[in-house]
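Q: Joint fold for the lines below.
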Amino acid sequence: MKRHLVSAADLTRDDALLILDTAEELAQLSGRAVKKLPTLRGRTVVNLFFEDSTRTKTSFEVAEKRLSADVINFSAKGSSVSKGESLKDTALTLQAMGADAVVIRHHASGAPARLAQSDWLHGSVINAGDGTHEHPTQALLDAFTMRRHLNPGLGQDLAGRRVTIVGDVLHSRVARSNVHLLTTLGAQVTFVAPPTLLPIGIENWPCEISYSLDSVLPKTDALMMLRVQRERMNAAFFPTEREYSRRYGLDGTRMAQLPGHAIVMHPGPMVRGMEITAEVADSPRCTVVEQVANGVSVRMAVLYLLLGGATLNDARTDSVETAQ
Amino acid sequence: MTTYLIRNAQILGGAPQDLHLADGVIKAIGTDLAVEADIEIDARGLIALPGLVDLHTHLREPGREDAETVLTGTQAAAMGGFTAVHAMANTTPVADTAGVVEQVWRLGQEAGYCDVQPVGAVTIGLGGKKLAELGAMHESAANVRVFSDDGKCVDDAVLMRRALEYVKAFDGVVAQHAQEPRLTEGAQMNEGQVSGELGLGGWPAVAEESIIARDVLLAAHVGSRLHVCHVSTAGSVEIIRWAKAKGWDVTAEVTPHHLLLTDELVRSYDPVYKVNPPLRTAEDVQALRKALADGTIDAVATDHAPHPDEDKDCEWAVAAMGMVGLETALSVVQQTMVDTGLLNWEGVADRMSHRPARIGRLAGQGRPVSVGEPANLVLFDPAYRGAVNPDSFATRSRNTPYKGLDLPGRVHATFLRGRATVLAGELAEQGGAA
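A: Joint structure:
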């Protein structure tokens, strides 16, 4: 297997299913009183966060600790990075300290790809979100959540399931990773956004585009609402918060247009009152909290498969047995 | 002064002839010349071209001597077959006064590897607010005729109009870096399919084309000469073609990298491909080659932009923009224009020597290869094939996008007014050189 997880586009269908199935096995742990596995004992995992992120960082940290890895948190604030140290020197430092894996969150698109391609580091690089590029573990936890609701079972994919992703696609790394992974798993993806918030060239992506949320709701199995930052309206991406909310926000009335089995997802953090109302966010159809729990399982699976000795292309049964 | 007898060189790719260089000029041309010379060069298989003229380099001195100096930059120029280079004004301090342009000019004289023609800033500090003393720079020893805020666009329409008008008094030209600033805030690469997928801020073609459209109309309105730097899009070519058809005095240049490379390379996130204007699409590349072939684009200019390793060995977003290009320019032009049949060697001489010298009003450069003309010459071996090795460069920086790439041709010798600056592919030490 690839040593790194930089882009969801790097995952084959078999890779993706292996991760989801492994995560499913690992998820059973969370029901136990003792949630820890010895798998990564003695391995060092560094969480290298150049950008503030409470939920992703915490999720990785929990996953690492449940696998008994030695966890180092290296945040840009309070380190030499804030004094102007380069990414290269930071990476060389981590290499010298014996990092087996580096989980990196960076504001610059492509920073994890740079680390993975460089000879600065020999360990695995796991992209925990880079700029407006990708966030592959988020896409994996989203796919994991969708599969549980829409096509449960080990070895199952998302063939034929219709996923609608609404909001600031232009600036969203979640949208980019999801379109790759969900398409690989057989789902049909539709992006809904004002034209200003869709990237140039999106007509060539493997997805449908709509400017109207209402027209796609009845044909949706999973509806994912993306966060829309209020400051976007200052750059004239849309006129006002209220207009955005009226045209692209999800309230109870709109949610009622979804088929009965459909779920409502959000990668968090939610901006209540903007892209999602409190009524929807707190409804039983909303999987936000479940997604957080699934995030830990999926990240455990990724760390385990990248570091545990097995490769993502090995037979699923082998790795799952080792995991247990 | 050393005299040279060059045996069997193909002048502009023609039949083999001998050239006798003495007293700084071409003394004689013919077959089996029976003259004595200090050094005889067997030039069988080599193309003789007039010394190349570059309208666009960054020699970084004063201010960024860690990236390049006038000495190392002109050594690189000589190795690339150039006998004259224009040095852009974005140094520290900015070349916006007679003092700074004279300093750069003098450093070029002292180095002795090629003529250095300083470009003067259009506005003070490249600030885009107030005209620099263009007349003083023209009247200085540097005799500036090309003015540019390169790196920044003169985006204020009134200021651009005034600059275009003002330099008419001394036959100057404004060389515009066409980049609408608001449309390119946070721009990291060409806006298109690849930028959307990579999540990198887009630099749309329209940001270049809208400024060029405005500028050609302004130049026509005030009857001035306009030069467009580093044209990078198919749309820009159309606008320039239209302006020329109108009879307006507009010239344009294209860089070697925009003739060869596309934005697909950015998928690596390797900042060696980060440049301004950015690498565009394959369609743009084809349009630029065609425009250079038909003369819509007048000149190849390198936009040689050296940067130290640490400014490229980093994340894409924080990396510096630019590529070195002096030592690979002719090879890239051979690959993209000559070997493709778009341009013959006569055409190469026109686009890389005659026309750029005329745009820059450089007397004694870009002259025909004929008896009595200044002996500014390059001998080029088009049969050579080899991988680009940055460690062999004369430039102080290593930020080439061609590392390891097989490119055709190499410079065998360069002569500046009869003095060899390069012989047998090696730099020839100059008297004034440190």
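Q: Anything notable?
A: Residues 288-307 of chain A form the longest helix (20 residues). Chain A has a mean pLDDT of 91.
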